[in-house]
Give the backbone structure.
Amino acid sequence: MEKNVGKADKIIRIVLGLVIGAAGYHFQSWWGLIGIVPIFTALINWCPLYAPFGIKTCRKK
């Protein structure tokens, strides 16, 4: 897997994942588990939705 998630995108994904998870916890909903997806994609630096479209937010070498 070639990295396709850049630094700014990674930070946004982590913050968004934490917010979704916190909202799910606050409202006592299982929907908060969706926050795991952006956190996971940020940690592995790869987004499966970017791959088919050739989108990359990381710097080119």
